[in-house]
Amino acid sequence: MKLVRTSLLFVVVFITASAVSLAQNDISAQLTKLLDANATGYMEPFASALGADLNSGLYHSADLHSVLGFDIGLKVGYSTVPSDHRTFDFMLPNQIKFGVATLNAGTDYDQIVAGSPTFAGGKTGIPVVVKQSSPQVLLRGQTIFTTPGGFDYPHLPLIAPQAAIGLPFGIEVIGRFLPSTKVGDAGKVNFAGFGLRYDIDQFIPFCPVDLAVHFMTQKATLNDNGGKKVLSLSGTAFGGEVSKSLLLFTIYGGFQIESSNLT
Questions:
Q1: What is the pLDDT of residues 16-25, one digit of tens each?
Q2: pTM to 2 decimals?
Q3: Is residue 21 within 8 Å of 97, Cβ to Cβ?
């Protein structure tokens, strides 16, 4: 996963005393509290889960449509974030300006906050307090910062309309589109995708099964509750599938390589 910098004013969090208890709002409000490395750890479970959903349900048979044959249906993806990905180690800077005092990591506070929620974790962040052994006597025991809470969203289902139409030469075109859909309290997600499938068994005389290969590319965006684009996630998948129709049933299986990239 590759996370690039966006216009998130991280420094503001640490130079104002109001950073002690910033209220949870939507995803933009949470990301403004993160440093670059923390943003990666915070969003990684969401990117992995959504990427898996995007690349799910691309086929249910290797028997492609004939020319101008088509189908329209709903494809369902469902991902669960493992429990060990619902928290991460939040890294604080070497110094924090708190009011008129300058606090130092290690001496005045712990630089690594273990167990801080990721996007999928609990809604309550972890408070950072001045150590009892800190030289800053008047600040001992005070909370100087609270890590962002998550959205308590460990399960990410995704339902998307998908259409496919057959073309000449054993080619099938796949299209997907999902209008803006609410993701818990975080914001709204939408995506579109395009893919191709190709009939392989047309080259194998008397082949007892149907064989096909496929390629799919998709892109999803997450907007905050104000409509501002927060991130985009692109996903690609390619692989092959085999199936056999038996009366009213179709037995199928396949192999797929997937990748996703978060900005």
A1: 222 333 334 4
A2: 0.70
A3: no
